[in-house]
Amino acid sequence: MGTGTIGIIIPVYNTDGAYLDESIASARAQTVACPIVVVDDGSTNPSTVDALARWSDRGVHVVRHPENRGTSVALDSGAAALDTDYLMPMGSDDRILPSLCAEVAAVLDADESVGIVSTDLRFFGSYEGVDRLPATDGVADILFGNTIPGASAFRRSDWVALGGFATGLRFGQDWEFWVRLLASGRTARVVHRPLYEYRRHAAQVTATMTEDGKLTHSLDVVRRNSGIWGAHVEEIMARYWKLADEHTRQSARLDVLERRYGALNRLLGRAARFVKSLRPRWRR
Question: How far is CA 212 from CA 55, 98, 177, 204, 215, in A?
């Protein structure tokens, strides 16, 4: 069990009240004492407002923004309201298992070089499954794209040193922060147990944003940190060429299989459809 204190930040903007209830309840059910700050980023949804009022009456610290200012500002507001050693953001529609905070705090306690601790994810809602996160050895591992969940623990001292989260980003705030944090020399670790439960539903930003929109915002992250990408350009290009070579080899293998077995597969498919057509069609 970790000895460092860990605080939970829950940014909220018009989250369904029932989802928010589950999220806060799971944060309060941790096996170690974890201060919780819920940041209402200008919500107008009555379900959200009612849920926040209920939890505030129960003693949960709720910080309110008079207007929507974005996730980065909400995260910074939550971090500023906490004086814990470590910070752990979580989605206002997600859930965490009771031992999560204790387990991630223990990793941060054990190694001063570690700056980020994640856990494997369990998806629920419109999609169910478990995502075992890949290892991240350094910043170069996330320059092609983010593999570290936004709901990961980090040191409050690093948040102060980096000047908080970058504002003006609608997408990729966590990725931008992780890039700067790992570039500072910190490392990342994963607790390989699905302690974080990530709700999948149609109203999520990632579900509603187009691929072009994601690309635009991702390039904004790159432009803001072009020096970091430039410092690792040789490694980036080496990885790109390795991936391109692997793609070429896989394409060649598929071409060989198509030439050898494509005609047979098509013939078997036609035969299966013919056999199916011979089955009696019973009427009720």
Answer: 38, 38, 22, 17, 5
